[in-house]
Amino acid sequence: MTMHIALLPGDGIGPEVVAEGVKVLRAVAQRFALDLQLDEGLIGGAAIDQTGQPLPPETAALCEAADAVLLGAVGGPKWDDPLAPVRPEQGLLAIRKHLGLFANLRPVTIHPMLVDASPLRPERLEGVDLLVVRELTGGIYFGAKQLERDAAGEWASDLCHYHETEIVRVVRVAANLARTRHGKLTLVDKANVLETSRLWRRVTTRVMQEEFSDLSYDWMLVDACAMHLLRKPSDFDVIVTENMFGDILTDEASMLAGSMGMLPSASLGAGNKGLYEPIHGSAPDIAGQGRANPLATILSCALLLRHSLNQEAAARAVEAAVSAVIEAGCVTGDLARPDQRAQSTSAVGDAVVAQLV
């Protein structure tokens, strides 16, 4: 059976890291006798330049027909004007909405060889194995926006809106994942201030009591969570939270692993279809220089194999290959120790492939 994967390289370092992901997918297909068809589409700034739209209809149709989507990154200085009516980030938000991808999974683990790359002391990283499940299609990013001027000057408004149905479905995803891990779910909110957070806490508590009473469940205010992620990150198993809080906390959590270039993500909906991407941005300052870390993209390919293609053995093989490459010291400059020679983007991708064939 042919499995279709839509490739959306995007902008900046996106094409470079997606190219390494493609190498790995082709190697996996050969090793595990998978029939993969890879088709490329435009998104973000590259799409704006060629079509005038951040998500052309052709790309949306390609993704809709695919079994999974692999995305690089969007954005860059060329399109940075926040007042521009058309911006690259609109393409990313639109494809998530179009495919109904409401749960964003961001796992954080620490490879022993990369402990020194983290700004935290090694003893604080012992036992870290957490998963953040971020609600992806609601909240302030998608709420009504307003920019006006009155006699006193300009004013602006961004509406944070959530319905209990949006909360229930993402909490169920997070809780089911907690059942496969260490059995603990933590809700992160700001219930002492925000009405939306109070709704999150009521609904989550109800779902956990009625459907997941076998799990350990607690909650934490977002500011306290930000502190605790640095003080004792090993306390967390699965974190579930709203869109903006999840966006911020996972960037913070990336520093536990030493670099944003190490963290993959999966955006899932009601079925098996998902969108997979590294959590880092387009990094235009290093684009085209062969310095980008491709491991987050390659690990995103492992998540793609696991969650959308149901190829657990292939996913584990990719993760083991990445671990072996790190163990051998073949890493890009963001992870290299002073005594190590930094490798290029393609050299790291080739090393992962060599572990797979």
From TrEMBL:
A GO cellular component annotation in the UniProt record: cytosol
Subcellular location: Cytoplasm
Record bears the keyword RNA-binding: no
Cell membrane keyword on record: no
Biological or metabolic pathway of the protein: Amino-acid biosynthesis; L-leucine biosynthesis; L-leucine from 3-methyl-2-oxobutanoate: step 3/4
Keywords assigned: Amino-acid biosynthesis, Branched-chain amino acid biosynthesis, Cytoplasm, Leucine biosynthesis, Magnesium, Manganese, Metal-binding, NAD, Oxidoreductase
Top EC category: oxidoreductase
Cofactor remark from the record: Binds 1 Mg(2+) or Mn(2+) ion per subunit.
Domain (Isopropylmalate dehydrogenase-like): residue spans on this chain: 4-352
Cofactor dependence: Mg(2+); Mn(2+)
Residue sites binding substrate per the record: R96, R106, R134, D223
Binding site for NAD(+): 76-89, 281-293
Site (Important for catalysis): Y141, K190
A single BP term in Gene Ontology: L-leucine biosynthetic process
Binding site for Mg(2+): D223, D247, D251
EC identifiers of the protein: 1.1.1.85
Pfam families for the chain: Iso_dh (PF00180)
PROSITE patterns: IDH_IMDH (PS00470)
A GO term for molecular function: 3-isopropylmalate dehydrogenase activity
InterPro entries cross-referenced by the UniProt entry: IsoCit/isopropylmalate_DH_CS, IsoPropMal-DH-like_dom, Isopropylmalate_DH
Catalytic reaction equation(s): (2R,3S)-3-isopropylmalate + NAD(+) = 4-methyl-2-oxopentanoate + CO2 + NADH
Subunit-level organization: Homodimer.
Biological function: Catalyzes the oxidation of 3-carboxy-2-hydroxy-4-methylpentanoate (3-isopropylmalate) to 3-carboxy-4-methyl-2-oxopentanoate. The product decarboxylates to 4-methyl-2 oxopentanoate.
Membership in a protein family: Belongs to the isocitrate and isopropylmalate dehydrogenases family. LeuB type 1 subfamily.
Xref: PANTHER family: 3-ISOPROPYLMALATE DEHYDROGENASE
Protein's name in the database: 3-isopropylmalate dehydrogenase
Taxonomic classification: Bacteria, Bacillati, Chloroflexota, Chloroflexia, Chloroflexales
